[in-house]
Amino acid sequence: MTATSTAGAASSSPWHFWAYFTAHRHQDLSWLWDHVWLSALPVVIGLAIALPLGWLASRYKWIYPPMLSLMGLLYTIPSIALFVIIPPLLGLKALDPIQVPIALTVYSVALLVRVVADGLGSVPEDVLQAATAMGFGRVQRLVKVELPIAVPVIAAGLRVATVSNVSIVAVAGTIGLANLGQLFTTGFQLSTPTAYYPPIVLGIVLCVALALAFDGVIVTANRLLTPWRRAVQGR
Amino acid sequence: MIGNVFGWLTTAAHWRGGNGMTAIGTQIQAHVTYSFVAVAIALAIALPLGLFMGHTGRLPFLVSAANTLRALPTVGVLILLTVMIAPNFHGRTDFGYLIPTEIVLVLIAIPPILSNTYAGVQNVDGVVRDAASAMGMTGSQVLLQVELPNSLPLIFSGLRSASLQVIATATIASYLPLGGLGRFIYDGLAQQDFPQMIGGGVLVALLALLTDSVLAFIQRHVVSRGVSGRFSKKAMTAGGPAAADIVQAEVAAV
User: Is the predicted pLDDT of residue A9 greater than 50, yes or no?
Assistant: First the structure.
């Protein structure tokens, strides 16, 4: 926490967060980068795990209720509790930087399994029959017909997962792990006699900007992957 | 490490308190109080508003406005409000920390309750609504006797997800000098007493699971069987985990 020692930007006005950023650019950019990969990577890994699990739950109906109950149970555990419980369960040190991405991957899987299962389950029966009649095999039908049709539902789940991840990663800052949450703890520590706003406001601005950027990427990818939806709307 | 955590949790002195450590029971009580007050306020605001919006179809933009609140980092908002409000309170009072915490908790609890109530009323089958009007029910009778009971499953899942998020965030309030189960996490961290830190995490997780079970139990007894589909041959997944329906409502909102 090098920034604690230097309150470089002299003004404590909330609107001088940009001056604070330029004064501590090196540190802030490093926290921003930590925040980016900590929020994004777990969603990517989570989707990779959730796709087969969600497929199983939609393919075999008896798996659906227990699988969804288990995922709901995992999602029920508050983030900060999961952060501190994971290391002893996996035999890590009590404060290991890897505990945050692991916890966030757990959340992403818990959220996305449901979305994938429901997305695949929402594919109309006649579409499946048409695909089979056209000679698609099981795997080919899944990859070329069912998954593309499920893309909008999965994308909606991805948006929820990434946006909430950005907020949860900041929570990990309060237990001393490096990310944009450090801006909040720094600001809090610098505010002891009188309020010192710039790092706090900068942290909120960067977090919201990051969440919006991730959201924009997913919305754009969704549009590019489902050109037929625009064709129907344009009619 | 797991044995140490278990040892910490089962030491009677930790539940009684003393020796510079507050009792676990006291902190559970504080945690539940903060959370309950916030959820009650949020419910008092969001439930009538959501019912009104769903019934009249007015102000639908409030749902998306409430959902954009989720992009805000809760820790950041909590600390910002604390830094603004806390210096105005002096002496032996917690209000400087309590007020910003409750504001943030209420802000977190409103979006899920509001969007699920709105979606619940909107999703009531038009045929059912028409039948109620045809039987001579007035607008408010349709709302309270038909639309409200029919939307209870979604309202409950909104309430459950709101409660879980409030319990999770109330933990972070202990980062400010405030009570609650997060006290053990942050004190354990500061004292490098990891069994205490992890034990606190276990208690928070248990509180969340217990709260969700209690709300699920209430839901089972409040929601009409005809609506939930319980005991019907077509088994539905209603009454399932709260997380499930968050996505459902949000997917609908996108």
Answer: no
* Angstroms from A73 CA to nearest CA on chain B: 7
Q: How far is it, in rounded angstroms, from Cα B221 to Cα B218?
A: 5
**Chain A: residue whose CA lies nearest to B74:** A167
CB contact under 8 A, B243 and A71: yes
Residue A153 CA from chain centroid, whole number: 16
How far apart (Å, rounded) are the C-alpha atoms in residues A126 and B46? Answer: 41
Contacts of B168 in chain A (CB under 8 A): 78-81
* DSSP structural state of residue B174: G
Q: Does A192 touch chain B (CB under 8 A)?
A: no
Q: Which residues of B230-252 are buried (b: 16+ CB within 10 A; e: fewer)?
A: eeeeeeeebbbbbbbbbbbbbbb
| Cβ atoms of residues B127 and B150 within 8 Å | no
Task: Tell me how far CA of residue B83 lies from CA of A11, B183, B239, in angstroms.
Answer: 15, 20, 41
| B21 three-state secondary structure | strand
Residue A179 burial (10 A CB sphere; 0-12, 13-18, 19+): buried
Per-residue pLDDT averaged across A164-184, rounded? 89
Q: Assess contact for A180 and A171: CB atoms under 8 A.
A: no
Task: Report whether A150 contacts A123 (CB < 8 A).
Answer: yes
Give residue A35's pLDDT band: very low, low, confident or very high (50, 70, 90): very high
Calculate the alpha carbon distances from A115 to A112, A216, B108 in Å: 5, 19, 23
Q: Do B73 and A191 touch (CB under 8 A)?
A: no
Which A-chain residues 28-57 have CB contacts (< 8 A) with chain B?
Answer: none
* DSSP for residue B232: S
Q: How is residue B87 annotated by DSSP?
A: G
Task: Report pLDDT digits (tens) over A106-152.
Answer: 999 999 998 999 899 888 889 999 999 999 988 899 988 999 989 98
Strand runs (DSSP E) across chain B, as ranges? none
Burial A189-206 (b: 16+ CB within 10 A, else e): ebbeeebbbbbbbbbbbb
Q: How many CB atoms lie within 10 A of CB A120?
A: 21
d(CA A163, CA B73): 9
Give the nearest chain B residue to A188 (CA atoms).
B79
Token output for B55:
């019934």
Say what the pTM is. 0.83
Q: Helices B242-253 and A147-173 meet at what angle, rounded to 10?
A: 110
